[in-house]
Every structure is written in structure tokens, then in C-alpha cells.
Amino acid sequence: MDLVKALQSEIKAGNLSFSGKRVLELGCGHGLPAIFASLEGAPTVHLQDFNAEVLRCLTIPNMDVNLKKSQAPECSLADRDIRFFGGDWKDVHHILPHIKDNEEDSNRDNGLASGGYDVILMAETVYSISSLQNLYELIKKCMSHPHGVAYMAGKKHYFGVGGGTRRFLSLLEKDGIMASSIVAEVADGSSNLREIWRLSFK
Length: 202
Prior knowledge:
Blueprint: H1 2-12, E1 22-26, H2 32-39, E2 44-49, H3 52-69, E3 81-86, H4 100-110, E4 119-123, H5 129-142, E5 149-155, H6 165-175, E6 178-186, E7 194-201
Parallel strand pairs: 1-2, 1-4, 2-3, 4-5
Antiparallel strand pairs: 5-7, 6-7
């Protein structure tokens, strides 16, 4: 919900639009940010989770119910590309359709611009130190260059497992090809400080 609220604020401030955009949610679980993007007019929404059973039993039914509830004409499913992908961040780029490497040859033939997703969404994905590098490499492969953006929501520190937003951002700083800016901080006293960050290519 933190990420959805931040996305609403970004839209109101004129910093984000989902109209005509290709969106990917990583580690989607319930898929709330992807549902929001779809309701805001994104024609292409792809959702990824490690566990295919989560996609079948939770994400797909949740997406289905929420989109059918909407009566807004811009939320029509007729012209939508909504797909679900199960797999690990290390390998899932092999099956995602909008990866820059996968599109390079066909785009060169068609005279189209570079591929990738315009907007990548992720919430609670940076808790495990062992997966941070794979997540970062996947984002670099998935995000459209040069204008793609990623929004990351997570706790500043995950006690007991060592991950967190700051640990993830240290990978960006070390690599030097992406910039980050804080979008929101949530300190409601119910948990560790939660943050929403915007990532983009420099």
C-alpha cells in the first residue's frame, strides 16, 4: 500500500503517467501496484513472482477481481496485455518479452527504439542480501533506456536477514549507472522505517 500511495502522489505531481506504458512488477505477491498501474491505463502489465503457485492462487484471482470491478472505460481488458511469469530473478529474463537484449535484433529490423519496460515496480523485494545482486541485474536488463524508471518500496533495514533499501542502493552507487531519489518515507510506529525510492539511468 505504501508503494500505491506513492505512485498516486507521483501521478498527481506530474512525475509519472501509466498511459501507453509497459509495466513490470517484480516479486508481485498480491500484485497491488500492478493492479493500480492497470487501473491507471497501462496497456501492458506483466507480473513476476518466484512462486508460480502464488501467481495462480493469489495474484491472478486478485487481478481478475479488481479489474472486473472497475467500470471505467480506460480499464477495459480488451486491449490489455496482462501476463504472469514465475521464476527466479537470476533466470526469469529469459522468458520476459520486453527485455532489451531480446528485442535488440527485432527492433533493429523494424526501426523501433530500444526495448524494455517503461516502469518497474517492486515492494518488499530487498530483504535478502543473497538476492540483491540478481534483482539489480534483472532491473538493468528490464528497464527501458534511457527513460525507464523503477519504484522500490521496502524497509530501510530488515533486521535478522541483513537486507534493506540502503543495502540495495549501495549496489547502485557502486555500479554508477543509475541514480536514485527518495519519493516517500513512512514512519508510523508500527514497523521499521519504510521508504519508497525512484531509480533511473543516469
